[in-house]
Amino acid sequence: MSTKPTNKANPSKNAESIVRDIRRKTRKNYNAEEKIRIVLEGLRGEASIAELCRREGINQNLYYSWSKTFLEAGKKRLSGDTMREATSSEVKDLRSESVQLKEMLAETMLENRLLKKSVIEGGE
Predict the structure, then answer these.
(1) CB-hemisphere CA count at 13 Å for 31?
(2) What pTM value is reported for the model?
């Protein structure tokens, strides 16, 4: 005999939560190129934003959020704010360069100490 709880009192609530879970797990993640394509298509004005969002399967609020982010980034870039995030290859290069510089500094400091000791010992 199974003691599995059932929700006979309100089956629609259980169905709604199942549908919500399925939607959450199957939600599409858009990459940067897709977001840019969608925003540019909306800016062209060939179709209404509502129609574009229906076709792409996104909420209008999401479209406007992407559009705002896109335009702000362009505004910052044009105003001369060229600060950007480093790519992973740039970060790797900088880290390896940092390690090399630290090793060179340690070697130089060691040589400096040895020279100081030899001068002190030779002078006494």
Answers:
(1) 1
(2) 0.47
**52 near 42, Cβ under 8 Å?**
yes
- Give Cα separations from 1 to 4, 5, 7, 102 (angstroms): 9, 12, 17, 69
Same domain, 27 and 56: yes
pLDDT digits 0-9 by tens, 55-89:
998 999 999 999 999 999 888 888 876 666 778 88
Residues ≥6 apart with Cβ < 8 Å to 93: none
- CA 80 to chain CA centroid, nearest Å: 22
Domain identity same for 58 and 112: no
Q: Assess if residue 17 is contained within a domain.
A: yes
Domain range holding 48?
13-82
Q: How many domains does the chain have?
A: 2
